[in-house]
Structure formats: structure tokens, C-alpha cells
Amino acid sequence: MRKGPRGVAALGGAVVSAALVVGTSVLPSAASTRVSAAGTPVMVGMVYEKTGIFSVYAEEYYQGFQIGLDYATHGTGAVDGHHVDVTWDDDADSATTAVTDFKSLVGAGYKIIGGTIDSGVATELAPLAAQNQVLYVSGPAAADQITGANVYTFRSGRQTDQDVLTAESYVASEGRGKEITVLAQDYAFGESYVTDADKAFASIGDKVKPVLVPLTTTDFAPTALKVSSMHPDLLFLAWAGTTGAALAQALDNQGVFASTKVVTGLANIATYPFYGAAGTKFDYLSLYFYQAPHNAANNFLVKEMAAKYHSVPDIFTPDGFTAAEMIVHAIQAGGGSDVNAMIKALAGWNFLAPKGMQQIRAADHAMLQPMYQVKLTESAGTFKPVLVKTLADAATAPPVAAHFSNP
Asked: At 88, which helix (H) or strand (E)?
């Protein structure tokens, strides 16, 4: 889907260089967002999964972006007199389509491109940013490989290593020498979890055994039987997309939840009931739930979600919000065309996002951010998250993946 360049499409249905200038920003000054009729629009291209198994996440990302753009431009939709015109392209969760979309945007003169949701897609787009010397701000895609891919690539969300480090104390509390099954999907996202878990949990004396499931799987009975037969001391469940309910039912049918300690990510709100009463015994890592942070950016997001979408922010809404903040900051520095200036402005930048203060690490463009440990509570069939602990960005900072010489 494409709307633009004159409007925004509506949506249905994861070592600081001495040469860098590191700034802190909570909200741009009003002077930086004055609208001028004579200002040339800045074109921004967004590639995302409007359709496909991650379409629900894409909607959250899209909504967050719209609200983040309002926040960062004080509702004007403009930066220094230049209206920000956003084109949204549906990659349909296809790397081939996403690459075509990306190249089409570059050919049309776009210097700023954002998205996607799928890690397998994002790892295909990151090299194109360097080849074409355009700014690329990846979306919720969590694979570690996006961090440090090249100097042109940034990310607005967390990465899987931050998830695993958030869960590490849960695993350590079980003692040493445990057998841990990592159940994940067989593509970049799941593979990244297996690598990170093997590294983190081996360091505390545990043994990791992966079970990777094809993305196209719809019958999870064989998977659940395999996990059950492994008799793990702990199940680390790393899952995304619309098949989570079917997987949960299959695991429950095999008695896995009753016999095994489970650590998993707190996914979007609709999934809270998936595990039933057993889910209240799980240990959850969380990248975001709207009740956890308390700051001006999150307050704005919650208020505007209610006003514009009659809803509340979900797991990937802040990734869209943050992407908009990053793009506005980049435009302030580079006017939408000076890519080197935009890179320099983003590398090392500290800013207030819905989760709190975040930093783009200059060395490799990792997005350092707070992370959460959570429990689910249940009352009369309604499940709600309860914050157990907020982990500061330094506590879950992934290893440095590169040492860029930023412009």
C-alpha cells in the first residue's frame, strides 16, 4: 500500500566515538517546528507488514508513529517549516516485496526509510541502506544482527539480547546445571534468541537445547510432544505472531505448563489469556506495557491513543513513537537530505521516549532502554500485568557489535 507523497496512509484492521556530539532532548523546541508554506516537504518512506502474520504488531507500530510525530513536532507535522510527508508501503511480510519497496523509495529520492516488524525482512533491508547511502530506522524487528549492521542503520526498538538479559536473573534463580529448552520460530528472530540464550545461560552453568519451529506451522501437537519428551527444567518461550494461542493450547494439552517452569516475553494485550491460569505462574520479561513507565512521553502516548484510536498503547506502539522521534531529530539536523548530518545527530543521542530515557549507542547504534520483569494477575477472567522490577538500560545493554566511525 502506498499513499503519498502528499499524505499519510490510514491503517486498517527489538564505545562512543570522540568525534560525536551527544545531546539530550525531551521535546523539540517550538521554534524548530514552525510551519512555512514555502518549505519543501521532507519525504519519509515506511515499509511495514500491513498484511501477514505480524499485521497486529504493524498496526501498533503505525499508530505509535502517528502519535510520536505529533509529539515531536508539537502537532504541526512539520520540522523547521518542512512538512513531513510519510509514505507507507505494505511488504506483506515478504522480504522480496520489502526489498522492492525499499529500492522503489530510494529511486523516488527518499533519504529516510523506516520499518519493519519482521527480523528476517529487516536483515535484508539493512545492507540496502549502506549500498544506497540512506538513513534506515528499523522498527520492532528484534534480531541482534540489525545492531551494528552498518553506519546507516539504526533501530527504534530493543533486540533479543536485551530480552534474554532481562530474563537472566529468572533463570539464575533456578540454580546451576539446568537443562533449558528454547522454543522459538525458525527464522532470524528465533535464531537470535537461541544464540543469545546459549551464551547467557551457559555463563551461569546451564545447558540450552533449541526447538525451532517453521513459521508456516499451524499444527503444534508434534512440537508440544517433543518439548514434553525433553523434560526440560525450564522452558524459555520466544514467540511472535498470531499462532501463539494454538501453540499455548498444544503445550498445555501435553502438560508442559504444569510440569515445567516457564519464562517468556509478555506479548501484546490480546495474548494475556492465552496460557490461562498457568500463565499467572510464569516469569515474564517485558519490553513495554503502558502501565509501567511514568513520564511525559508515555502520558502523551496513553492520552492520544485513547483520543485517536479509542484504545491503549500495546507492546510495539512505543517503537513507532520512538521511530518518529528519531526521524524528526534527524531532519532537524540534516533537513531530510544530508544523510551524514542525520547519522551524526542520532549516534549517541539521549532522549525521552515512552519507556523513559533512552540512548542510541554511538559505537553500533544499539538502542539502550529500560526493560521490565513482570507477573500476570487474574481476576474474574481478566489478566493484568504487574511490574516486578525495572531494569536500567545499562543492566541489559547488549555487547557492542561494531565500532563505527560515524560522520
From this structure: strand 82-90
Q: Which of 71, 79, 86 has the alpha carbon at shortest distance from 39?
A: 79
The dotted CATH code for 161-286 is 3.40.50.2300
Confirm if 197 and 182 have CB atoms less than 8 A apart. yes
Distance of CA 394 to CAs 39, 142, 159, 170, 316, Å? 41, 18, 14, 18, 21
Task: List, for residues 149-206, the tens digit of each pLDDT value.
Answer: 999 999 999 999 999 999 999 999 999 999 999 999 998 889 999 999 999 999 899 9
| CATH topology assigned to domain 24-158+294-368 | Rossmann fold (3.40.50)
Q: Which residues pair with 84 in a beta bridge?
A: 42
**Cα atoms in the 13 Å half-sphere on the side-chain side of 406:** 30
Longest dimension (CA), the chain: 68
302 contacts 355 by C-beta, under 8 angstroms = no
Would you say 211 and 223 are in contact if contact means Cβ atoms under 8 Å apart?
yes
**Conformation bin of residue 296: beta by default, left when phi > 0, alpha when psi is -120 to 50:** alpha
Stretch(es) of the chain classified as CATH 3.40.50.2300: 24-158+294-368, 161-286
Question: Phi and psi dihedrals of 87, rounded to 5?
Answer: -105, 130
CA neighbor of 49 nearest in space, from 97, 106, 110, 103: 97
Burial of 239 (0-12, 13-18, 19+ CB in 10 A): buried
Say whether pLDDT at 127 is over 90: yes
Kindly tell me if the per-residue pLDDT of 6 is higher than 90.
Answer: no
Q: What is the pLDDT of residue 188?
A: 85
Q: Contact, 138 vs 188, CB < 8 A? A: no
Say how many residues make up the chain: 407
Helix (H), strand (E) at residue 382: strand 382-391
What three-state secondary structure class fits 121?
helix
Evaluate whether 241 touches 220 at the Cβ level (below 8 Å): no
